[in-house]
Write the C-alpha cells for this entry.
Amino acid sequence: MSTSTEQPADLTAATTLLRFATAGSVDDGKSTLVGRLLHDSKSVLADQLEAVEHASRSRGQEAPDLALLTDGLRAEREQGITIDVAYRYFATPRRRFILADTPGHVQYTRNMVTGASTAELAVVLVDARNGVVEQTRRHAAVAALLRVPHVVLAVNKMDLVDYAEPVFAAIAEEFTTYAKELGVPEITAIPISALAGDNVVEPSANMDWYGGPTVLEHLETVPVSHDLTACHARFPVQYVIRPQTAEHPDYRGYAGQIAAGAFRVGEEVTVLPSGKTSTITAIDALGEAVDIAWAPQSVTIRLADDIDISRGDLLAPTGDAPATSQDVEATVCHVADRPLAVGQRVLLKHTTRTVKAIVKDIPSRLTLDDLSQHPAPGQLVANDIGRVVVRTAEPLALDAYADSRRTGSFLLIDPADGTTLAAGMAGESFATAKAVAAAEDEDGWDF
C-alpha cells in the first residue's frame, strides 16, 4: 500500500492548465480572436492553415479567414456565425489551455452556459462600434452566476474606430460597473483588433496609450487555482462493484470520481441520503491500493460495513456532510425552447443521482437591463435567468453552489424525452454573489 501523502503528479501539473471560454454578440469577432490566438501562438498545424487558406480563397478572400479554424460545422461556415461550442486545445511554453468558443446569437446562450460551466476565465467580446449591448450583459450575468473568477473584456475592432482611447475607456467603464454589480470579482479590459492582431498575442503599435497585457499574456499569467482538494470532500457513487469471483468472493466496492476534497483509509464517512456511517477500509486507484486519493481521481472505495449503497448515493466525511433536503431553492439558466412553468413535473439530475421533482414556484426572473427582479413571472422561457423552488421526491445532498461548483449544480430535465430544460445553481442568487465578492475583496481572498 502506498503511504505517500503528496498529491499525484498529474494533479500538481494541472495548475498549469487554464480552462477559458469566449462569449459575445454576433459578429463581435469571437472566432476570429480564437483563430488569431491559435495562429499567432503557432498552435495551428500546417495542413489546418492550408485548408483555411484554400477555403478563404474559394470565398474570394485574399487573406486567410482565421475564424474558420474554430467554425468547424458546415452550417457555421455557410452562415458565418458560431452555432455550437467549439473546444480547442493548445499550449504555450508557459501554460496549457482548453478553450471553449461559444456562440454569440441570443438563441444559443445555452451553449455559453455549457462552455463557461467549467471555465476559470471568460473572455467577453464587445464590438467597439456598438459598445455594451443586451447580449453582453447576459453573458456577464451568466459568468457571474457560474462563479467564473476572472473576466476579460476584449473591446474588439478598435481599428474601425481609429484606435480611439476614449471609445475604449467609455466601454470599459460601463462594463466594469455592470459586472461589479453582478459580483464579478476581477475584470480586465483589453483593447484589441482580432483581425489585425493588435494586442492579441503581440502588443499593438497603434495603441501606445495602452500599457496593459495582451490577451495571451494575460491568459498565461492570470492566477488560477483549481485545487479541488481544498473543498469539502464529496464522492458520488457511480457504480457498485461486486465481482463475486473465487478470487474475490467478498469484494464490494463503490466506484466513481471524487468530486472534491480528499479521502483517506481509516476515515469515517457518512452515506447520503440514508445517513448511515462506516469507515473506509481501502481505496483502489488504477488497480493499486492507496491510502489517500484526491479530486478529480477516479477510484473505488471499500467500507467496513455492508451498507445498502447504490448509484446516486454520496459519501462525505462524517462531521462535514451536507444536509439533505427535498426542497431546492436555486437560480437557473433556462436553456430549452419550451418554457419552464410552475407545477411542471421534471427530473432533477445532481451528480450521479436523478430524482423526480416538481416546480413549486418561480419567485422571480432577472431583468438584465437594470438587474432588477421581475416578481412571479409564472414561467421561464429560453435564455431567461430566474429563481426557482423545486420539490424532489427523494432527499438530495446538495452543497451551496458558492461552496462547490460541482456538487452545488444540477440539471432540470423533461421526463418525457430527456431534454435538458435548465441548469441550476443551488442557493445561488445575485445578492449572495455580490456579498461574497465584496467580502472576499475586503479580506483579500482569491475568489
Summary: The mean pLDDT is 83. The CA atoms of residues 6 and 292 lie 9 Å apart.
